[in-house]
Design brief:
It is a single chain. The chain is an alpha+beta fold and 153 residues long. The protein has one domain. The protein is 37% helix and 24% strand. It has a five-stranded antiparallel sheet with strand order 1-5-4-3-2. The radius of gyration is 16 Å and the shape is globular. The termini are far apart.
Length: 153
C-alpha cells in the first residue's frame, strides 16, 4: 500500500494563521463553468444576485453593527485582493475581527472550494461573531451554490 500525505494550502490560511474560526465548503463545478478563481469569488460574494433572505441578513448586519460601536461594511468589502494560479482572496481587517475568504478552483477535479478564516478581536468580535458562527456555513454554502448555478446557465 502506498502512502499519501495531502497538501492543504490556501491564501486564506496563509493570510490568517491561527484563526479562531475556519470553514471549508466544496462545490462541484457545473459543466462549462469558468475556471478563473477571481470570477468565482466575485460571483460568490455578489450580494445583489443573492436570494432575498440573504440580502435581508446582510441588511440586518449593516443596521445592527453600530450598536456594537462598529462601522458598516463598504460596498467593496468582498473585492478580489490577491490571486494565485488557482485561488482568489478577499480579506478585511476591522476593529472586531480579521476576515479572509479564498475561493480555489480545481479544474482537474471540477471542484471549487471556499475557505473562510476569522480572527476575533476582544469582546466586540466575540459578540458579533456569536450569531454569525451559527449561520455562516448555511449562508456561505448558499452563496457558493448560487454562483455554481449562475455559471451553469
Amino acid at each position: 500500500m502506498s502512502s499519501y500525505e495531502p497538501a492543504f494550502r490556501s491564501l486564506a490560511l496563509t493570510r490568517l494563521p491561527g484563526a479562531d474560526y475556519v470553514d471549508v465548503i466544496v462545490q462541484p463545478m457545473p459543466t462549462g463553468a469558468t475556471t478563473d478563481p477571481s470570477d468565482w469569488l466575485r460571483a460568490t460574494f455578489d450580494v445583489r444576485h443573492s436570494p432575498v433572505w440573504l440580502r435581508a441578513l446582510f441588511g440586518l448586519r449593516q443596521a445592527l453593527v453600530p450598536v456594537l460601536g462598529l462601522e458598516r461594511n463598504p460596498a467593496d468589502v468582498f473585492a478580489v485582493q490577491q490571486v494565485s494560479a488557482s485561488e482568489a482572496l478577499t480579506y478585511a481587517s476591522e476593529r472586531h475581527l480579521d476576515f479572509a475568504a479564498a475561493l480555489g478552483v480545481d479544474a482537474e477535479q471540477r471542484l471549487v472550494r471556499l475557505i473562510t478564516t476569522v480572527r476575533l478581536h476582544g469582546w466586540r468580535g466575540r459578540v458579533y461573531f456569536l450569531p454569525v458562527r451559527l449561520v455562516h456555513r448555511v449562508v456561505a454554502g448558499a452563496m457558493l451554490r448560487r454562483a455554481a448555478r449562475q455559471f451553469g446557465e
